[in-house]
Amino acid sequence: MKKILFLCIMMSHSFSAQYKDITIVKEVRVKNKGVVVSAHPLASEAGAKILKLGGNSYDAIVATQYALAVVYPQAGNIGGGGFLVGVKSTGEKFTIDYRETAPQKASHDMYIDKNGKADTNLSQNGRLAVGIPGSVAGFFATLKYCKLPMSKLIQPAIDLAEKGFAITEKEADLLNSNQENFKKHNSSSIVFVKPIPWKAGDILTQKELAESLKLIQKLGSKGFYEGKTANLIVSEMKKGNGIISLDDLKNYKVAERKPLEFNYKGNNIVSMPLPSSGGILLAQMLKMAEFENLEKYQQNSVKAVQIMVEAERRAFADRAEYMGDPDFIEDKTSYLISDEYLKNRWKNFSFNKATLSSEVGKIIPQPKESTETTHISVIDKEGNAASVTTTLNGLYGSKVVVSGAGFFLNNEMDDFSVKPGVPNMFGAVGGEANSIQPHKRMLSSMTPTIVLKNGKPIIIVGTPGGTTIPTSVYQSIVDVIDFKLNANITVNSPKFHHQWLPETVAFEKNFPESIVKELEKLGYKSEKVKQIGRTEMILIDENGNINAVADGRGDDSVAVE
């Protein structure tokens, strides 16, 4: 049922009546071809199909995102939001912010109970957790950079939803483990719940979702933000304590922002600005690591990890204090990534011992993390590059499916500081800069990034993983630029993560134990985690050779036009 190819030069695929034969391609090496890397083979193939039809990277991005909403329901979506970073072959750089926003009826203390405690169950599960979805508006905002009409870009997703596709073993396991959550938060029957357990090869058909996609195909963005689908979303809100209104949906706006750019060792890093914390964190971490000449060390050696962890610690402390929606706060990006500020931040670094997190911020107890997002990296044969990260926030978002419309809604309100000092589901602490206000965008960790050399893309990278996203992108860039590693080793090497609070450094279970022990002797607290992120990377060398790698931690896959 499932074939895995670890190296493939070029593949051609055709869409059949039903999508049963799923081929996972982990790595390709090509030239003068467009490639798509995403979390699911059928989504990557949808993007590659659009490239074959004459579309560019941005066409492929839209098609892949719509397909992920069908085949990857735990994170792919039309009920969530995301960020796009693009670099055109002409050199033009742009970002599209289609992050969810707080509804008009949202308020600063909406998740605080009568005893003054934060009720994170309400911000993480059910209808009150839902922010106004931005994905569909973002797809239409991307059209200005596309070559093909939306009617063609959305068709592969409609076919997948209407005809059905065979689910993978990983998807079956996730659906099975969430059956009770689905039942708890949905009063109507949904296609994701069935009386016997899901298994690999089962066909998932989503007729209601297909109809929702057809409305978008026929009516444009109004097919989602107005009319039937909007009414169904509001009706779903009224089944519980949801607060999104028809006006909220109709008035949602995408924001096109100036990319966050900075230099790292002769390379131009292009990433996402606020309300993503990712670009700022990436700049801070890379610049602080540069003070110690990181290239002198080896990947995942004691000193390399120590330098990188300490940079992560300081950056995440700043995230909690300074970062939020730039339309609502003073944007201190320039100050936070300045050499003067970062040199001062780095003064108390020592190779002799771990820095205490209390030295960079107030200690607050943290919960365990949970992560679910999805990333797409694309380059076309003309050299247009796109890096896109989208999310429902938690696994299957709020767990609520819009009855009659067939898609999951996000639980993105939890990415606000529900109560200053109280951590969200990923353990991230925030302050007033990220407090809840109507129409405000919640702070994000998503870090879609493109690295340029002499004006040309050389790295297109991103990953899911909540607060582990910026640190994984950071490690990916360091692995390529400083440690001179190839894409496969970079993507699949064991990762680590630190975020100021909790004090603990998280290591993937296959991280070298000897290195962990040496770090513990220096005062670092450690924990083992199953996995950190699922990185999608494209490397392009000076001769135009493309090496695209999909993360081995999941069903992620590369497709070639």
Automatic annotation (TrEMBL):
<dbReference type="InterPro" id="IPR029055">
    <property type="entry name" value="Ntn_hydrolases_N"/>
</dbReference>
<feature type="signal peptide">
    <location>
        <begin position="1"/>
        <end position="19"/>
    </location>
</feature>
<comment type="subunit">
    <text>This enzyme consists of two polypeptide chains, which are synthesized in precursor form from a single polypeptide.</text>
</comment>
<keyword id="KW-0808">Transferase</keyword>
<comment type="pathway">
    <text>Sulfur metabolism; glutathione metabolism.</text>
</comment>
<dbReference type="InterPro" id="IPR000101">
    <property type="entry name" value="GGT_peptidase"/>
</dbReference>
<keyword id="KW-0317">Glutathione biosynthesis</keyword>
<keyword id="KW-0378">Hydrolase</keyword>
<dbReference type="Pfam" id="PF01019">
    <property type="entry name" value="G_glu_transpept"/>
</dbReference>
<keyword id="KW-0012">Acyltransferase</keyword>
<keyword id="KW-0732">Signal</keyword>
<dbReference type="InterPro" id="IPR051792">
    <property type="entry name" value="GGT_bact"/>
</dbReference>
<dbReference type="GO" id="GO:0103068">
    <property type="term" value="F:leukotriene C4 gamma-glutamyl transferase activity"/>
</dbReference>
<keyword id="KW-0865">Zymogen</keyword>
<dbReference type="InterPro" id="IPR043137">
    <property type="entry name" value="GGT_ssub_C"/>
</dbReference>
<dbReference type="InterPro" id="IPR043138">
    <property type="entry name" value="GGT_lsub"/>
</dbReference>
<comment type="similarity">
    <text>Belongs to the gamma-glutamyltransferase family.</text>
</comment>
<protein>
    <recommendedName>
        <fullName>Glutathione hydrolase proenzyme</fullName>
        <ecNumber>2.3.2.2</ecNumber>
        <ecNumber>3.4.19.13</ecNumber>
    </recommendedName>
</protein>
